[in-house]
Write a structure and sequence with these properties.
alpha+beta, Mannose-Binding Protein A, Chain A, 9-stranded mixed sheet, 4-stranded antiparallel sheet, 7 helices, globular, disordered N terminus
């Protein structure tokens, strides 16, 4: 979105602000094949890093960079290494309040298998290759209807693909109330939830639990393994040796400063903390409803006198 489009959007919405900085993430396709490590160095030398993908919305936008399918596989920033951690399949960070990602209700030890079944409120580790029914979460529904039991036995990865295709994702359980709701939806059956454990990390160190592996991929826990986004229409990911040569995606941060003239008789009110905060919240809401969702940071840019708004 260029500066003119931003200004038009602000004027149409009725928001009038003199200046603010918009700092958001874009992705750049680098077509020269390199190893994952050389690609990482290339991005970092330019102040960027290999691409981190935060959610399915960002995943869909990336597909447009390779819309002509000119490249079969592209490096992204995900690589194997470090201790294993538990993640929820539903990656949208706005879905979780503080601490809700860490709710657990396991019975028994946590070693071994890396995918989670719920049965009678308790959670158990199982292998991906096992077939079980599962519960999807549907963010477009309300109340208990958000938890959708699918009575078809699938592996965990197959269940994830199904939920993302027909609903939102495999179910996340953020607290004991939701644990009870999922148990009620399951009808007494053992069901897959969205919790999984692995040791893949993003190059720039940011946290994102999004994983978009090909459902037929066999993922081994091997050092020097890195992730590629394939040219398939879904852009699913596969594991490759980090030493292979592929084009790659950098996350490129851009900053834009916009100025808009505003008509007001009360300059002190406009410069008040409450008014500035209220306007920023409105802008944030507008951006979250558009194509820049979760890919921007906005802040006021002050003038030499420390104020945001000045009279002409």
């Amino acid at each position: 979105m260029n500066a003119m489009e931003w200004i038009q959007t602000l004027l149409i919405s009725g928001l009038c602000i003199p200046s603010f900085c918009a700092d958001y993430r874009q992705h750049c396709l680098i077509e020269t094949p390199k190893s994952w490590f050389d690609a990482q160095s290339y991005c970092r030398e330019r102040g960027y890093d290999l691409a981190t993908i935060d959610d399915m919305g960002a995943m869909k936008s990336l597909l447009g960079l390779n819309a002509d399918r000119a490249h079969d596989e592209l490096w992204i920033g995900l690589h194997y290494g470090g201790p294993e951690r538990w993640h929820w399949s539903l990656a949208d960070k706005d879905f979780y309040r503080e601490g809700e990602r860490n709710y657990r209700n396991f019975k028994g030890g946590l070693s071994g298998a890396r995918f989670t079944l719920q049965y009678d409120l308790k959670w158990y580790n199982h292998g991906n290759g096992e077939k079980h029914v599962f519960v999807c979460y549907d963010g477009n529904r309300q109340g208990g209807d958000r938890y959708v039991l699918v009575r078809e036995g699938k592996s965990w990865t197959e269940a994830q693909v199904y939920c993302r295709s027909h609903h939102t994702d495999l179910v996340s359980v953020r607290n004991s109330t939701e644990n009870q709701a999922v148990a009620e939806a399951s009808g007494g059956l053992s069901v897959w939830t969205g919790l999984f454990k692995e040791a893949w990390y993003w190059s720039d160190g940011r946290y994102s639990s999004l994983r978009h592996w090909d459902q037929h991929a066999i993922l081994g826990n091997f050092p020097q393994s890195c992730a590629v986004m394939t040219s398939h229409i879904s852009g699913r990911w596969s594991q490759r040796s980090c030493h292979e040569l592929h084009p790659f995606l950098c996350t490129c941060t851009r900053k834009h400063v916009l100025k808009v003239r505003v008509l007001s008789e009360d300059i002190q009110e406009l410069n008040g903390p409450a008014m500035k905060t209220a306007i920023l919240k409105q802008i944030q809401k507008m951006l979250n409803e558009g194509t820049l969702r979760n890919h921007h940071k906005i802040a006021w840019k002050t003038n030499s006198d420390g104020q945001v708004f000045t009279e002409e």
